Amino acid sequence: MHSLPVIAVTSGEPAGVGPEVCLRLLAGARAGHQGHEVHLPARIVVLADRSLLAERAAALNVPGAFRDWDPALPPTAGALEVLHLPMGAKAQPGRLDPANAPYVLALLDRALAGCRSGEFAAMVTAPVHKGVINDAGIPFTGHTEYLAERTGTPRVVMMLAGGGLRVALVTTHLPLKDVPAAVTQSAVEETLRILHREMGQKYGFADPRILVAGLNPHAGEGGYLGHEEIDVIIPVLERLRAEGMTLLGPLPADTMFSPAVLARGDCILAMYHDQGLTALKYASFGHGINVTLGLPIIRTSVDHGTALDLAGSGQADPGSLLVAVAQAIEMVARAGQALSG
């Protein structure tokens, strides 16, 4: 039992659905899509305020017990291991409180510290609410950027996976008007290098085929609808193809999600958030995941937000969190195989 990898799961915004979907991880098992149990080959540790989990479990009539996380002890059947961190204020489902913003970030910091020390093999994150963190006076653009800053990583890549798709982004949480200036040759090249490397390390593709979107409609239409493809994207693709990478593009984003085009690649690189993620979330919402590529740790996440309107109702779908945990375990196993090989 002690040889099982330990996965840290941060419970996210306490007023949202994060705490209650974390309750589905009780006893290290999950309900499958057809209602049967699937046992996860790992120890799952939920980072949360213990009283929050207990209150939400009682309100939703979720069976099971809680036990304080202690790596020296074996797990207990039927108990959810909890690493307790106290909230700043009592949380009510659906009601945001800036007083709990430091608590939300403390969950991330503790999980990250455990991953870097070797206490945890990976971290999985439930959703946070960017707005209330900023309302508390703490500048915050998202998990991806926060973890990059905390680890001193100059560039990380946000990739969502689900519905048979893997979509990575050159830019993430930017206003649309700021995207063209952020799509530089260095940004595209660094993102492609990270994506190429991590598709091998995390997914086992020795020579991944990467479909690359253009920035403009019709991929610029030969310069008539914009010059970013000619001036920025194409030179990078030519340079990296000369090094041996398999890159297709730049492709028009409105047709690249057609089955015939998707069959030619193993993953997609989009230039901005909605360009790539609209199709993916249509194909997989509720069961897709977010993976941060380029970090010195393994981190996966849900593909949805805090769903304040569902918090406390018991109707929140835990599918994305369960897939994120399962994917993190697979990545840990693949990393271990690579080291032993």
UniProtKB/TrEMBL annotation:
<dbReference type="GO" id="GO:0000287">
    <property type="term" value="F:magnesium ion binding"/>
</dbReference>
<feature type="binding site">
    <location>
        <position position="144"/>
    </location>
    <ligand>
        <name>substrate</name>
    </ligand>
</feature>
<comment type="subunit">
    <text>Homodimer.</text>
</comment>
<dbReference type="GO" id="GO:0051287">
    <property type="term" value="F:NAD binding"/>
</dbReference>
<dbReference type="GO" id="GO:0050897">
    <property type="term" value="F:cobalt ion binding"/>
</dbReference>
<dbReference type="GO" id="GO:0008615">
    <property type="term" value="P:pyridoxine biosynthetic process"/>
</dbReference>
<keyword id="KW-0479">Metal-binding</keyword>
<dbReference type="InterPro" id="IPR005255">
    <property type="entry name" value="PdxA_fam"/>
</dbReference>
<feature type="binding site">
    <location>
        <position position="281"/>
    </location>
    <ligand>
        <name>substrate</name>
    </ligand>
</feature>
<feature type="binding site">
    <location>
        <position position="290"/>
    </location>
    <ligand>
        <name>substrate</name>
    </ligand>
</feature>
<keyword id="KW-0520">NAD</keyword>
<keyword id="KW-0560">Oxidoreductase</keyword>
<dbReference type="GO" id="GO:0005737">
    <property type="term" value="C:cytoplasm"/>
</dbReference>
<keyword id="KW-0170">Cobalt</keyword>
<feature type="binding site">
    <location>
        <position position="218"/>
    </location>
    <ligand>
        <name>a divalent metal cation</name>
    </ligand>
</feature>
<dbReference type="Pfam" id="PF04166">
    <property type="entry name" value="PdxA"/>
</dbReference>
<feature type="binding site">
    <location>
        <position position="173"/>
    </location>
    <ligand>
        <name>a divalent metal cation</name>
    </ligand>
</feature>
<feature type="binding site">
    <location>
        <position position="273"/>
    </location>
    <ligand>
        <name>a divalent metal cation</name>
    </ligand>
</feature>
<keyword id="KW-0664">Pyridoxine biosynthesis</keyword>
<comment type="function">
    <text>Catalyzes the NAD(P)-dependent oxidation of 4-(phosphooxy)-L-threonine (HTP) into 2-amino-3-oxo-4-(phosphooxy)butyric acid which spontaneously decarboxylates to form 3-amino-2-oxopropyl phosphate (AHAP).</text>
</comment>
<feature type="binding site">
    <location>
        <position position="143"/>
    </location>
    <ligand>
        <name>substrate</name>
    </ligand>
</feature>
<dbReference type="GO" id="GO:0042823">
    <property type="term" value="P:pyridoxal phosphate biosynthetic process"/>
</dbReference>
<comment type="similarity">
    <text>Belongs to the PdxA family.</text>
</comment>
<feature type="binding site">
    <location>
        <position position="299"/>
    </location>
    <ligand>
        <name>substrate</name>
    </ligand>
</feature>
<keyword id="KW-0862">Zinc</keyword>
<dbReference type="GO" id="GO:0050570">
    <property type="term" value="F:4-hydroxythreonine-4-phosphate dehydrogenase activity"/>
</dbReference>
<keyword id="KW-0521">NADP</keyword>
<comment type="pathway">
    <text>Cofactor biosynthesis; pyridoxine 5'-phosphate biosynthesis; pyridoxine 5'-phosphate from D-erythrose 4-phosphate: step 4/5.</text>
</comment>
<dbReference type="InterPro" id="IPR037510">
    <property type="entry name" value="PdxA"/>
</dbReference>
<keyword id="KW-0460">Magnesium</keyword>
<keyword id="KW-0963">Cytoplasm</keyword>
<protein>
    <recommendedName>
        <fullName>4-hydroxythreonine-4-phosphate dehydrogenase</fullName>
        <ecNumber>1.1.1.262</ecNumber>
    </recommendedName>
</protein>
<dbReference type="GO" id="GO:0008270">
    <property type="term" value="F:zinc ion binding"/>
</dbReference>
